[in-house]
Task: structure prediction
Amino acid sequence: MALRIRLARGGAKKHPFYRMVVADSRCSRDGAFLERVGSYDPFLPQENPKRLVASSERIKYWFSVGAKASERVALLLSRLDLCAKPTISETPKKSAPKKKAQERLKAQQEAAAASAAAE
Result:
C-alpha cells in the first residue's frame, strides 16, 4: 500500500479548511484515511499558531513506515522543520512568451534604459 500524507478539504463553500491525513494514494481526496495528523487553515494570518497544526511524533512515525508527503504538505511541513523543502520545478517552456512578445518586451526595456540614461 502506497501511503501519502496529504490534505483533505473541509469547510464551507469558498472558505476551505484542510485536514492533514495519512491515506492510501489510491483513495479519493476526501475519502477513507488511516489517521488525521494535523490541520491547515489558510484564512488565518501567517503568524497565528493555529494556522498550521501538526503532530510531529505521528508524522515522523509515518515517514519511518514509508509514507510520502504530497508536494503541498511537504512545503507546509518544511515550515515546521519536519521534512525537507521540495524543489519548485522550473516553469515549462511552453508557457514562456512567444517570439513577438519577447521582442516587444526587449524593446520596452531598451526604451526604459535609454530614457533613464538621458536623465
In short: Residues 3-79 form a domain with the S16 Ribosomal Protein; Chain: A; fold (CATH 3.30.1320.10).
